[in-house]
Write a structure and sequence with these properties.
2 copies of one chain form a homodimer.
Chain A lengths: L2 H10 L9 H16 L6 H8 L6 H4 L3 H25 L4 H17 L3 H9 L6 H27 L7 H18 L8 H11 L5
The first copy, chain A, binds a DNA duplex (30 and 30 nucleotides) through helix 4.
DNA sequence: GACAATACCAAGCAAGCGCTTGGTTTGTAA
DNA sequence: TTACAAACCAAGCGCTTGCTTGGTATTGTC
């Protein structure tokens, strides 16, 4: 199943907004602005201007500014969970599955959903507790994919550290790439994935 | 040289504020509040209340709110650069130096300066360009320590990935520990350091 | 075409922000 | 003790923010 097909399926199920529609365009611009200036410094006037409407009109689509932030986060988790599941399902061996997960997460962080993924990391404190709890539920599904694969890699004898700890170290390592990695900087995503795998001493 | 002696020396040279003094107490509380609520959501009224004065009085010590943020960052970099240099100087072999750096950075992130270190990561966008440039100058000194050691470890044959990339992946991995590591969670700082070293395939 | 629903506009509200200003209090040195 | 500097207080300024409200315009459905 291609990435486009996965996205279309999620749109059809109303789990993710169509990027070509009004709501989807707003979320895309919101992710960009929140990423660039921070959620708190991005005003509703900024958001409205980015999609070419007046600020009061935003409140027709979302009840509050915070609901926009939450939607950016929820939708990117849903999309990337599906993409990672698909990447992982395409291979069999535990080490290959781990490599596929690393590659897919690097792509989520440095590709189309990079801005939303950065918002997930950097704007967590601006969410209310209720919203944080809702986002964490989705996040837990995503994290379980990782833990299952890391456990399998450890059981196969390729990893000496604890899967729980490794996952969290990898979360930081991969999330931080958003601050320094440039696809046109001479290192492809596959090359970067190779570096991560090599740093872990898992290279063949 | 002990950590206390290093701190005292920096205070004497006016590179770091005395934590017992008015300015130092304010910076300590600022780091805590900025970490917990975010810089933007922390008002000058919050800061003043945290140290028991009225908000207008803050402007006697600092010209602007942003100058407080900058001082939190600048002072923690200065302190931690000195602490890491000392930790590294206490050992000889490249792998031991790398381990010492990892241990020292984990301590900076999860110990006394943890709040300020988190502010350095999460509040970068709230700094003006001038302030960012000033902070980066100090940051570059700190980063060069790491790159020198990683180059030595690679030259000794223990690392296959590129030092530049590894440093950045480690920055993320170690910085992220601020969100999940708890010293009373059954894993000591030394234990966590061992996990990082093991994840890198550098365990003995 | 008529009507309802959706999307948007324009104006402005109430609350809160970083900071200034004129003053008072405290600490230090001579 | 006196003079001066440093630290703080209290009040309030000008501006900005997220959001509401009454209205208009556009789209969708029958």
């Amino acid at each position: 199943m291609t990435q486009d097909a996965i996205l279309r399926s999620l749109i059809a199920e109303n789990l993710v907004s169509d990027p070509a529609g009004a709501r989807g365009r707003l979320l895309k611009e919101a992710a960009r602005l929140f990423r660039d200036k921070g959620y708190e410094r991005t005003t509703v006037r900024d958001l409205a201007a980015a999609v070419g409407i007046q600020s009061g009109s935003l409140f027709h689509h979302f009840r509050t500014k915070e609901d926009i932030l939450k939607a950016v986060m929820v939708e990117t988790i849903r999309l990337n969970t599906a993409l990672m599941q698909a990447a992982m399902d395409a291979v069999d061996a535990p080490r290959d599955k781990l490599r596929a997960l690393i590659r897919a997460e690097l792509e989520s962080i440095n590709g189309q959903t990079g801005e939303a993924m950065a918002v997930l990391v950097f704007e967590w404190r601006s969410l209310s507790e209720d919203a944080q709890a809702a986002v964490l539920e989705l996040r837990d599904i995503y994290e379980q994919l990782w833990l299952d694969v890391l456990e399998a890699v450890k059981a196969a004898g390729y990893l000496r550290a604890e899967p729980f700890v490794v996952r969290r170290l990898l979360t930081g390592a991969l999330s931080w790439t958003v601050t320094w990695y440039r696809p046109d900087g001479g290192l492809s995503l596959d090359g970067l994935t190779d570096q991560v795998v090599a740093m872990m001493g898992l290279a063949e």
